[in-house]
Amino acid sequence: MTASTIMVVEDDNELREALSETLQLAGFTVLKAKDGVDALQKLTNAPVNLIVSDIQMPNMDGQTLLKKLKNIYSDIPVMLMTAYGT
Fold first, then answer.
1. φ and ψ at 27, to 5 degrees?
2. Residue 69, CA distances (Å) to 14, 27, 72, 76, 77 in order
3. Cα separations (Å) of 41 from 38, 65, 72?
4. Confidence category of residue 86, pLDDT binned at 50, 70, 90
5. What is residue 1's predicted lDDT score, i.e. its pLDDT?
6. Which of the four pLDDT bands, split at 50, 70 and 90, describes residue 83?
7. Bridge-based pairing state of the strands 78-81 and 29-33
8. Is 81 helix (H, G, I), strand (E, B) or coil?
9. Is the model's pLDDT at 20 over the cut of 80?
10. Does pTM surpass 0.85?
């Protein structure tokens, strides 16, 4: 069986690596992106089964990324996360 591929979109390098390692240990293939722009660029060459994205990021935030994904890749589930309380 082929492992599902999850894209982790996170601007904080340490958190992106920690999330990626945790998912890899659980048996998933992980594709990493540093922001929404990077994620959209990488999706043109690599299909994924799920996108886990931070909301607060430079260049393109998670909510803008979600809107673009729903227009281009409407079949990919997206999970947004944040460390902010507001």
1. 100, 5
2. 25, 25, 5, 8, 9
3. 5, 12, 12
4. low
5. 46
6. confident
7. unpaired
8. strand
9. yes
10. yes
